[in-house]
Amino acid sequence: MEDDIDLGESRIVFDGEDSLVFLRSQAKRKYKINILIHNNSTCHIGKNNTMTEQLIINIGERKHVFLGNDVMCAAGVLIRTTDWHMIYSVKDKKRLNLSKSVFIGDHVWLAQYVMLLKGTQIASGSVVGAKGLIAGKRIPSNTCWAGNPAKLISDGIFWDRRQVQKFRVEDSEKYNTFPDDEYIFNYDPKVYIPFNEIDKQLTSCETAQDKMEYLLKISNIDDHNRFAF
Predict the structure, then answer these.
(1) How far apart are CA 164 and CA 140, in angstroms?
(2) How far apart are the two ends of the chain, measured CA to CA in Å?
(3) How much is the pTM?
């Protein structure tokens, strides 16, 4: 944890060995997390994220959950890397539901009761609508997805944190047009950090200390388009 972190009423359970939970500063906001992590796994939560209620994260079978910066989690959001139990093919008795890591870029909005299941990758600037369920999908930057299973609702969008509930007429008029390109993300091969590469590197680390050293190398790379695709 960084020095200025307030865990509030959070709960973190390590049920295994050589795992790492790396929590970065939330700009004096309290963490609201409920993390269960098992053997040889990693959980990274970046800077300046918000959680309306406890963000539930379950990580197992040597997989990882990575959140970038400025992620907004509404109430009831759940992230998990496994199905808990195994499913096999009748034909050849091979396992069908292998566990996979979950990755979320910067400035992503997860609305109320969103569920992100194994293999999900969400690029910077995107939105998942209320009660959306995403499993194994790769979500491009500046897109909006919703439904169960979630489908693309719109692309070429971006979002802002300001809450509109108390807006007066003049406030609504002021923000009918956004003033800049701050939340528009574009793929740039020169700065892009592939989620699959992060997954590969974390999985190859033998100890929690190794995971920490690797995350420190990439966590301070704050280029705007680092997780845009």
Answers:
(1) 26
(2) 29
(3) 0.95
Q: How far apart are CA 96 and CA 80, in angstroms?
A: 17
Instruction: For residues 125 and 5, give the distance between their C-alpha atoms in angstroms, rounded to a whole number.
Output: 25
The 3-state DSSP class for residue 172 equals helix
How far apart are alpha carbons 71 and 91 in whole angstroms? 42
Averaged pLDDT of the chain: 96
- How many other CB atoms are found less than 10 A from the CB of residue 220? 9
* Confidence band of 11 (pLDDT split at 50, 70, 90): very high
Of 16, 67, 101, 7, whose CA–CA distance to 215 is shortest?
67
Query: For 83-142, how does the pLDDT look when each residue is reduced to its tens digit (9 = 90+)?
Result: 999 999 999 999 999 999 999 999 999 999 999 999 999 999 999 999 999 999 999 999
Dihedral sign (CA 33, 69, 217, 203): positive
Query: In the structure encoding, which two tokens stand for residue 129, read together?
Result: 């609508």
Calpha distance 141→21 (Å, rounded): 26
Q: How many CB atoms lie within 10 A of CB 162?
A: 8
Task: Please say whether the dihedral angle defined by the alpha carbons of residues 138, 23, 159 and 78, taken in this order, is positive or negative.
Answer: positive
Which segments within 61-217 are labelled E, that is strand? 64-67, 72-73, 78-80, 102-104, 109-110, 115-117, 121-122, 127-128, 133-135, 138-139, 143-147, 150-155
Q: Which domains does the chain have, with CATH numbers?
A: 11-85+96-161+170-219 (2.160.10.10)
